[in-house]
Design brief:
Elements lengths: L9 H4 L11 E5 L2 E4 L4 E4 L2 H4 L8 H11 L12 H13 L4 E5 L2 H19 L6 E5 L8 H6 L16 E4 L4 H5 L6 E6 L2 E2 L5 E2 L2 H13 L3 E5 L13 H5 L5 E4 L10 E5 L1 H4 L15 H14 L2 H25 L2 E7 L2 E6 L7 H10 L2 E2 L1 E2 L4 E4 L7 H19 L1
Parallel strand pairs: 3-15, 5-6, 5-7, 7-10, 10-11
Antiparallel strand pairs: 1-2, 2-3, 4-12, 8-9, 11-12, 13-14, 14-17, 16-17
Helix pairs in contact: 3-11, 4-11, 12-14, 13-14
The site of pyridoxal-5'-phosphate (PLP) has 15 residues, from helix 5.
Length: about 400
């Protein structure tokens, strides 16, 4: 029996915590997708900053195919070659000395926060448990990560909230300095807030946090789940800023669509994760680490990384042209291919409408909150696809104005 599900079938079988668009894409190639009726879409979303090499990239397909015929899973009672190979490359290409693998950004952060608490506990004592984070930040949907995150709507109704977490104002160093003291074990920050509206940190803000952490023996944790893996034109955004964290979390584009999370750690901190302190059944899974190693080698090349700034410039020019015509954006911001366009005037707060109109015109977009259009395409999207997608966005805005 064959059965072709539609969007109408969704609420019968899935929980209602998402509200997806009605089209159901069934295949993708590069920055294009096709739905059940074979309608074509340009992809400016890339999952949510996940498909950094587009859909069905041949190197990733080959890697997954050959690993899938070899070994799917062991467990951390044993070890596997792909996990060691990926960890080695991640430490060679970043500040980190050690890696802990998991399956998602939330889990990578959960590990980072537990590790920071444990480090302070072992080295300084039980009193040093405070985590300082920022308003509007997003770190995942586990209970610890929503609590560290700075958006109250995600903890509401799930209380009691874990203690020892305080929130400062992003890009306001004084507000962070007022909270960071000798009881602080970690300061957690996204170099670019993605979900919070695509807001980049100012360089002196991150440098100031580094100094405050050093002054108070606190660990600096960069959540690069969204900003990492080439999205800024650097392998990780910290490299663009020249500020090095003690712990960095990666997921999303790390597997380019295969689920994986990684917590990258400096040696002196990693030491406290001794046998039994933390774990994950699927962490380091051979399928995931094989795909991620191929993704890392492909993204971490001059060709891909240098191409990001060229594409950023084209996105910006096209968005500015749209703004000249529609007078719709209060701000166009972000770095590399993590770009936000804040809506204004008659479009204010209408992001979800723009998203729906865009898909009707053959364009897949994202929003970051109700008032910011978000663009997180493949790092290797073609110039022609960018121009065509922007023409579709232009038509979508025409229809909304009409
Ligand atoms: C998406 C995201 C997460 C959560 O990742 P999941 O894989 O959904 O758990 C955490 N931090 C940031 C900055 C993100 O953008």
């Amino acid at each position: 029996m064959t059965w072709t599900p539609t969007r109408d079938d969704y609420p019968a079988y899935l929980t209602a915590n998402y509200n997806p668009q009605s089209v159901i894409p069934v295949r993708g190639q590069g920055s294009r997708l096709w739905d059940q009726a074979d309608n074509e879409y340009i992809d400016f979303a890339g999952g949510i900053a996940v498909n950094a090499l587009g859909h069905a990239h041949p190197a990733l397909v080959d890697a997954l195919k050959s690993q899938s015929e070899t070994l799917w899973h062991l467990s951390n009672v044993y070890t596997n070659e792909p996990a060691i190979k990926l960890a080695r490359r991640l430490t060679e290409t970043t500040f980190a000395d050690k890696v802990f693998f998991s399956n998602s950004g939330g889990e990578a952060n959960e590990a980072a926060f537990k590790l920071a608490r444990r480090y302070a506990y072992d080295r300084f004592g039980e009193h040093k448990d405070k985590i300082v984070s920022f308003n509007q930040s997003f770190h995942g949907r586990t209970w610890f990560t929503v609590s560290v995150g700075g958006q109250e709507k995600y903890t509401q109704g799930f209380g009691p909230v874990p203690g020892g977490i305080e929130h400062a104002t992003y890009n306001d160093l004084d507000s962070a300095a007022a909270l960071i003291d000798n009881n602080t074990c970690a300061v957690v920050v996204e170099p670019i807030q993605g979900e919070g509206g695509v807001t980049s940190a100012q360089a002196d803000f991150l440098a100031g946090l580094r100094q405050l952490c050093d002054d108070h023996d606190a660990l600096l944790v960069f959540d690069e789940v969204q900003s990492g893996m080439g999205r800024t034109g650097h392998l990780f955004a910290y490299m663009a800023y020249g500020v090095t964290p003690d712990i960095l979390t990666s997921a999303k584009a790390l597997g380019c669509g295969f689920p994986i999370g990684a917590t990258l750690i400096a040696d002196r901190v990693a030491e406290v994760f001794v046998v039994g302190t933390h774990g994950s059944t699927f962490g380091g899974n051979p399928l995931a680490t094989t795909v991620a190693l191929t993704a890392l080698e492909t993204i971490n090349s001059n060709e891909v990384l240098n191409g990001v700034s060229k594409r950023h410039a084209l996105f910006r020019a096209e968005l500015e042209a749209i703004n000249d015509k529609h007078d719709c954006f209060a701000d166009i911001r972000g770095m590399g291919l993590l770009i936000g366009a804040e809506l204004k005037g008659s479009f204010e707060q209408r992001g979800r409408e723009v998203l729906a109109a865009a898909i009707n015109n053959g364009l897949m977009l994202l929003i970051a909150g109700p008032n910011v259009l978000r663009f997180t395409p493949s790092l290797i999207i073609s110039e022609a696809d960018i121009r065509e997608g922007m023409a579709q966005l232009d038509r979508a805005l025409d229809q909304i104005s009409a």
